[in-house]
Specification:
This protein is mainly alpha-helical. It has helices spanning 2-15, 19-24, 30-68, 72-98. The chain has one domain.
Length: 110
């Protein structure tokens, strides 16, 4: 599933190439350089998508916590686990959003 999303993002970016880029792509060595840039762009889109979905899960977790707050006994029983899950989600979202964009992308071609 994730591999399909990567391919879709990559296809979307490469499909947006214009005439000048196609011409420049015919220069030896330049096409590989341009491909890396497109993979980085797809990588960034993928990171943003994953982070947004995780943020949605975090909001759902907050809604569960709010719902439990109406019953103090249940809220106390689950508060620690919910807090831990929220912290882990925040950490993961931060790692995905703030990961350095090095020479290779998150899912760079090998």
């Amino acid at each position: 599933m994730m591999k399909d999303q990567i391919s879709d993002l990559y296809d979307k970016i490469t499909g947006e190439s214009r005439g000048l880029e196609n011409l420049l792509g015919k220069i030896p060595g330049l096409s590989g350089y341009m491909e890396k840039g497109k993979r980085r762009e797809a990588d960034q889109l993928l990171r943003e998508t994953i982070a947004a979905r995780l943020e949605g899960s975090r909001l759902q977790l907050g809604a569960v916590s709010e719902e439990l707050s109406s019953d103090i006994i249940k809220a106390m029983d689950h508060a620690e686990a919910l807090g831990r899950a929220d912290n882990r989600l925040m950490g993961l979202i931060g790692k995905i959003k703030d990961a350095p964009q090095g020479y290779a992308g998150f899912f760079d071609a090998v």
